[in-house]
């Protein structure tokens, strides 16, 4: 099973929801006690929210890129951003790492 790198902390409730839904999906598809193999790096949402408020999307992207690189070094096979709003920086994150970032409709909740 591949290792999912979850960029979380972009409001912790969203991170928890992504984690829960991913694991429920694995369990439902594979049965038994199966669960996803994953790593999660959480960022400080206070910092991200400040950058959003200021319209400083480059700084917000830098935080996500740092998180993505940490997950890549940690052994993630692909990445997922645990927030619908922050997918606006998906291309910046994707360009900064060598592993795929799932985004668009596939990487979003809702």
UniProtKB/TrEMBL annotation:
EC number of the protein: 5.1.1.13
Alphabetized UniProt keyword annotations: Isomerase
Superkingdom of origin organism: Bacteria
Family annotation (InterPro entries): Asp/Glu/hydantoin_racemase, Asp/Glu_race, Asp_race
One function term, GO molecular function aspect: aspartate racemase activity
Family annotation (Gene3D superfamilies): 3.40.50.1860
Parts forming coiled coils: none
Pfam families: Asp_Glu_race
Similarity-based family: Belongs to the aspartate/glutamate racemases family.
Protein name: Aspartate racemase
Organism this protein belongs to: Deinococcus humi
Upper classification of the organism: Bacteria, Thermotogati, Deinococcota, Deinococci, Deinococcales
């Amino acid at each position: 099973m591949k290792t999912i790198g979850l960029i979380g902390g972009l409001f912790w409730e969203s991170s928890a929801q992504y984690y829960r839904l991913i694991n429920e999906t694995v369990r439902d598809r594979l049965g038994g006690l199966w669960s996803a193999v994953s790593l999660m790096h959480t960022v400080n949402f206070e910092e991200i929210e400040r950058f959003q408020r200021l319209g400083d999307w480059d700084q917000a992207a830098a935080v996500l890129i740092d998180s993505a690189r940490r997950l890549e070094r940690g052994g993630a096979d692909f990445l997922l951003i645990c927030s619908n709003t922050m997918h606006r920086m998906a291309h910046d994150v994707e360009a900064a790492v060598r592993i795929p970032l799932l985004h668009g409709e596939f990487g979003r909740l809702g």
